[in-house]
Amino acid sequence: MNLLFALLFYVATLILVGGIAYRVYDYARTPAPLKIPTTPAPTTSGGVAFRMFREVVFFESLFKSNLWIWALGWTFHLGLALVLLRHLRYFTEPVNFIIAFIQPFGMYAGFAMAAGLAGLWARRILVERIRYISTPSDHLMLALLLGIAVTGLAMKFLMHTDIVAVKAFFLGLMVFEINPLPSHPGLYLHLGMVVLLMIVFPVSKLLHAPGVFFSPTRNQVDNPRETRHLAPWAAKFEAKN
Amino acid sequence: MADETTPVAVAVPRSGSPGTQSEPAPTPKPAPAKPAEKAKVVAPAFREYPTIPALKIDSMVESNPYVSAAVHNESVGFPGTLVDGWEQKAVAKMGELLGKYRSLKVYMDACVHCGACTDKCHYFIGTGDPKNMPVARQDLMRSVYRRYYTLPGKLFPKLVGARDMTKDVLDDWFRYYNQCSECRRCSVFCPYGIDTAEVTMAAKEIMHSVGLGHKYVNEIIGKVHKIGNNLGLPGPALENTLEGLEEDVLEDTGAAVKYPLDVKGAEVLLVTPSADFFAEPHVDSLIGYGKVFHAAGISWTLSSKASEAGNFGMFIGNYEQMQKIAMRVREAALELGVKRIVVGECGHAWRVAYAFWNTLTGIGAGANDPFAIQLQKQLDPNYKQPSHICEVTWDLIQAGRLKFNKEANDHRIVTFHDSCNVARGSRMGDYAGGQFDIPRNIIRAVANHYVDMSEATTREKTFCCGGGGGLLTDELLDLRVKGALPRMEALNRIVQDNGVNFMATICAICKAQFTKVLPYYGFKMSMVGGVHQLVSTAIVLNNEQ
After folding, report:
1. What pTM value is reported for the model?
2. Which residues of B154-313 form beta strands (DSSP E)?
3. Under CATH, to which class is B70-218 assigned?
């Protein structure tokens, strides 16, 4: 089991990092030939950075759109962010004081995360329009994330595992040593689902995370009259004219 | 032009009789494939509260535009009919576009099916057909993208909703991508800014590339290339029309306002939608532009070569067509030696002019390449290039160079309909949102009674008129009437509460669409008009000849 999980984590990390790096490279190299910001849009690059900040941190457009989806989605993502930060303690020694400080918040964030996911899933099942657009993979993605949240919470509150050993396992992985992982079904389940999530990330809708930064309607400066914007493939047409 | 049988981009000819129409005009020439049924055009009832409609599966499955005949496809450079092996060619074309457009690539990947957009499209609100929900419309293409361009779609198509490129899929594309007016309302509300218009344009580009063309749009593009404008009005006809206008205005006002054509050395080249030359109420705004230039003493000209501001190349997502159409304006500007280029009241034309002309033709500023510099050194850097006619008029008002008799508009209680392409695809003035304020400022400067519609339906949240994106054709009238529902509801509220009797707008398609659609909702078609129609009514002219 130790070896299996060690291998899984190495492979999953490679896929996750390599996959996202490739996607980012692919998005970055694909030209945006025309200026298409959704207006009104910022007229300076500082303004665009601020728009993107509001979008990524507060989900501004979603807030304008639908308060239910916004509240559930934002709760889930904020919870996830805190939980991820909290888990950094498994990868660092000594633990940074900020990470130490947020430990209790991260604990409750786990509940927020699960509640947000459950709410989103309920909408997917109960709201006719959203049921119509849902694919099996949309449900499975929620199941996977909820499974990770629930098994994590269970290990915190119901069936503890030896987290000192877990930490030793991950610190070991980082220097290519394989330390024993506690034999604990909840832990196996939790880590197995995390591995699966890491693997599907670069080929799934989770690409919305890097994708939003490359969305031309959000990341372009509204200045088409002031500067000429020309993609390389489009410039070739001018030679003909 | 007399033998042309296109359903033209205008509602009624200038001499057309006013009054309400209860029946849609018959389509001049039914497409051979699908005989023109007696169109069932039904306006939905106003809703007491704007609730989200329940899904009505396949309720718009009968709504199809006419397929373009081979001759019209070929005249624009597309294959005449559906080519052999179109399935592979369509998929390959998709791959090409994914490599050329970052928008398409990111938008195919990023959607999480959150549902934020599902109730935002006017066509969904008006029809209840789930495939008119923006996400479902995108998924018509996304399902094919996943099948051919993603690993999970290749391995587990059912799991991720991936589909092969089949005739059924293509038929759905043709139906439902021609039920999108590319108005971008969904992109305002998407947490990733996914713009269905980008997907619709890509789908249309793919369909055209395999020989499945849209008759109305391709005929119009063919006419622009051949004659210079969407309506196919040749130079002499334009000249006649403009002389007629001069006589009319002289008779009405006693002022010798000129409507010049092809005048070399004029300061301003005005490029306006060709509907302005003879459709009601469009022409009243053209009269207004002329009065503004006259009153301000600015020399200006129209061009017979660039006698069209509209650019239907955008509607089919075809960069080369869009550029070719826009190049006529560049050429006219160079030939006439003008210092400024001004665009008349037209929504998508203003988006193309404002956001794309600098890219496509060098009409703008800030270039460092010879192609663009050639033109930019001719244009006056003290003005925005291009400028919207509303920017010109508002600047003149602020500078105190125009005088108005506001009481002349006192019989009107005015509201303003933000046109989608102006609202969400462009700007006016110096700050974000100027496109909302400047037209309203002008209206307030020329009329005493102004009321806004509900804020859920104006500014960036405005609803499309229902006729944009190349859908302004008679065989789609049922869709157009239904798609107008949210705008008609907002209008109805202020008609009831405030007695509004005039809806001003700055788009030729909005004007034509509303003229046709208003009667279905019990309003007079004459309720709609241009901002410069109001300017025209109130402006005080110098009567010396």
Report:
1. 0.93
2. 268-271, 279-280, 300-301
3. mainly alpha
